[in-house]
């Protein structure tokens, strides 16, 4: 008898349900507003409050008619054009404070840039030798205490021109902290890094860019931040004597013309510019050192 073998019935596979993709999480407006409010409360509000208090004390202290210094309201009334429009041009010497600051910054860029290049290179060389550093360190310590204006007569006698003389004053003022900090950073490089460089047989240029600069970056940019501040101080002082259209000569000319309100406005410009320069060098240092430089 033939026995028919029954095949199992083919049951179709169940269809899988459609996959549901999660929607991207969008930050809620309330969270954004909370973060913005926290930022304002922690970073913006404190200096604004302090500024308002200082202005109130200043106004109350010098609002009398017998005061020798102008009050904030007097500064606004008499020097409003310098505050509202910093880039006006009415003549070769009658220009806004914005143009004067840019003129001074151009000289600072030349002097400080040259000091940064020479200072880092010299500091890197001296940091490699403890004997050389002991020999040069007393000389650096003596020269860095010389005031910027003390270098001006020497530079004028050497260059016979006010522009290169001012650049030299910036250079000679800013270079010392850069050299000293760079040398200290090079000496602080761990010995393990030097051993790795010896195993990899890095030449001097490769050692400088791959080992020395990243390791000593916090020290280098600390010196650069000090140097850029000294550069800005030096150019303002030098321009008072060398003339031109810089912010320093503007202050000296305003004093000779008894325009105290213009001097106060110029001081605010100088302070804000110095603050921006310091923050800019600090930001570059954090980028180069990946957050290790402050």
UniProtKB/TrEMBL annotation:
Its main location: membrane. It is found in: Cell inner membrane; Cell membrane. It comes from the Bacteria. Residues 101-281 form the ABC transmembrane type-1 domain. The chain crosses the membrane at residues 40-60, 108-127, 166-186, 232-252, 264-284. Keywords: Cell inner membrane, Cell membrane, Ion transport, Membrane, Transmembrane, Transmembrane helix, Transport. The keyword Ion transport applies. SUPFAM superfamilies: MetI-like (SSF161098). Pfam families: BPD_transp_1. Gene3D superfamilies: MetI-like. It is a multi-pass membrane protein. InterPro entries: MetI-like, MetI-like_sf, NtrB. Belongs to the binding-protein-dependent transport system permease family. PANTHER family: ALKANE SULFONATE ABC TRANSPORTER-RELATED, MEMBRANE SUBUNIT, NITRATE IMPORT PERMEASE PROTEIN NRTB. This is Nitrate ABC transporter permease. It comes from Rhodobacter calidifons.
């Amino acid at each position: 008898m033939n026995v028919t073998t029954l095949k199992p019935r083919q049951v179709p596979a169940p269809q899988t349900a459609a996959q549901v993709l999660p929607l991207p999480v969008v930050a809620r407006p309330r969270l954004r507003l909370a973060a913005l409010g926290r930022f304002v409360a922690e970073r913006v509000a404190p200096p604004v409050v302090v500024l308002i208090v200082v202005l109130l004390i200043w106004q109350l202290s010098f609002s009398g008619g017998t005061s020798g210094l102008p009050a904030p309201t007097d500064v606004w009334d008499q020097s409003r054009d310098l505050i509202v429009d910093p880039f006006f041009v009415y003549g070769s010497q009658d220009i806004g404070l914005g143009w004067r600051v840019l003129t001074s910054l151009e000289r600072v860029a030349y002097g400080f840039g040259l000091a940064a290049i020479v200072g880092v290179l010299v500091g890197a060389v001296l940091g490699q030798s403890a004997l050389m550093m002991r020999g040069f360190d007393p000389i650096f310590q003596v020269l860095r205490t010389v005031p910027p204006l003390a270098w001006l007569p020497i530079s004028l006698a050497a260059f016979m021109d006010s522009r290169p003389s001012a650049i030299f004053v910036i250079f000679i003022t800013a270079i010392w902290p850069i050299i000293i900090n760079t040398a200290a950073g090079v000496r602080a490089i761990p010995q393990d890094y030097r051993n790795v460089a010896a195993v990899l047989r890095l030449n001097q240029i490769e050692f400088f860019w791959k080992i020395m600069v990243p390791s000593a970056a916090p020290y280098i940019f600390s010196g650069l931040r000090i140097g850029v501040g000294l550069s800005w101080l030096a150019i303002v002082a030098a321009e008072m004597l060398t003339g031109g259209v810089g912010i320093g000569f503007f202050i000296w000319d305003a004093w000779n013309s008894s325009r105290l309100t213009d001097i106060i406005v110029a001081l605010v410009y100088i302070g804000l510019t110095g603050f921006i320069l310091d923050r800019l060098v600090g930001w570059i240092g954090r980028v180069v050192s990946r957050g290790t430089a402050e």
